What we know:
By secondary structure, the chain is mainly alpha-helical. It has a single domain (4-74), classed as Winged helix-like DNA-binding domain superfamily/Winged helix DNA-binding domain (Arc Repressor Mutant, subunit A), CATH 1.10.10. It is 41% helix and 8% strand. The chain has helices at residues 30-38, 43-49, 56-74, and strands at residues 4-5, 10-12, 22-23. The protein has a three-stranded antiparallel sheet with strand order 1-2-3. The radius of gyration is 15 Å and the shape is globular. The termini are far apart.
Amino acid sequence: MQAKQLGKYIVADPEICHGQPTFRGTRILVKTVLAQVARGEDWQVIVSQWDGKVNLEGISEAVRIASEALIAHESVPASESEMVAD
């Protein structure tokens, strides 16, 4: 399996972190940065914490790709057994 470019800043390479999406040229997992975003951390602080190896554009791309994945998932009908009651 070859590396798959998921965006300009994000790649999934089976040779890096078992193929989990990372920021290009790093071993920084996209899910780790998305968790920081979800906790409400300031994006500029996130960039600083990763010593600039993750930039604002990369964070934005990660959020966009995650959003698109959620929207795509929502468009797939769930069976009644998968639905959760409110």
